[in-house]
Amino acid sequence: MQSNGIKLGTLIYVMRGNEQDPDSIEILLLHRNKRQKDMHAGKWVGIGGKLLERESPRECAIRELKEEANIIPLDLTFRGQVYFDEIHKNGRNDHSGDAFNWIVFLYKVTKFVGEINKECHEGTLKWVQLKDLDSLPMWKGDHALIPAVILSKRTIDAKMVYEGEEVVQLWLFDNTRPWTNTEECHEQTKE
């Protein structure tokens, strides 16, 4: 296996509802159903993508929201970052090919202008209840990451390591202790 270095990207979670009432919260997610050779094919993910040359994370987030959802954020809030270790283009972590690492900057949006696209070049956009995330096909770590981005008041400094589709290491750091599994992440997000 050869590492191809670090790639930079953004993930933006657009939400609506009352943050004091998690049952009322909906997240705008993208169902990646347009490209067969997409490592995210069939999964529900946040809006986002790679930083372009000379582009800041904030500029990338604004561009991706416009390109994928046709919206302009009015309150783009930086929530932290997540480091993904040894992601393979084939979506597997079986050490059979070139790998790369990602540092992804996390943002939350609660106010925006524009009419949301129902479709984009990568898939279908849909509002999903926060409480229904566990029923969707998505990357396992997202079940802990998305509620943390939306509900936690703490800045997120996370690391995820996958083997295939399974998370083998997950930390959502705060200043006192690592979160070591998704159940613990859900509990600490409520604090």
Description of the structure:
There is one protein chain. The protein is α+β, with helices and mostly antiparallel strands. It has one domain: Nucleoside Triphosphate Pyrophosphohydrolase (Alpha-Beta Complex). The chain is 16% helix and 41% strand. Strands 1, 2, 3, 4, 6, 7, 9, 10, 11 and 12 form a ten-stranded mixed sheet that branches. Strands 5-8 form a two-stranded antiparallel sheet. A hairpin with a 2-residue loop joins strand 9 and strand 10. Helix 2 packs parallel to helix 3. About 3% of the residues have low confidence.
Please sum up the structure shown.
The chain is α+β, with helices and mostly antiparallel strands and 191 residues long. The chain is built from 3 helices and 12 strands; from the N terminus they run ββββαββββββαββα.
Mean pLDDT: 82
Specify the biggest β-sheet.
10 strands, mixed
Q: CATH topology, what is it called?
A: Nucleoside Triphosphate Pyrophosphohydrolase
Number of beta-strand segments: 12
For this structure, what is the CATH homologous superfamily?
Answer: Nucleoside Triphosphate Pyrophosphohydrolase
Parts with pLDDT < 50 across at least 5 consecutive residues:
90-95
Calculate the terminal CA-CA distance, rounded to whole Å. Answer: 40 Å
Secondary-structure content class:
alpha+beta
Note the topology.
Blueprint: E1 3-16, E2 26-32, E3 44-45, E4 47-50, H1 57-69, E5 72-73, E6 77-88, E7 99-109, E8 112-113, E9 119-120, E10 123-129, H2 142-151, E11 156-163, E12 166-173, H3 182-189
Parallel strand pairs: 1-7, 6-11
Antiparallel strand pairs: 1-2, 1-4, 2-3, 2-10, 5-8, 6-7, 9-10, 11-12
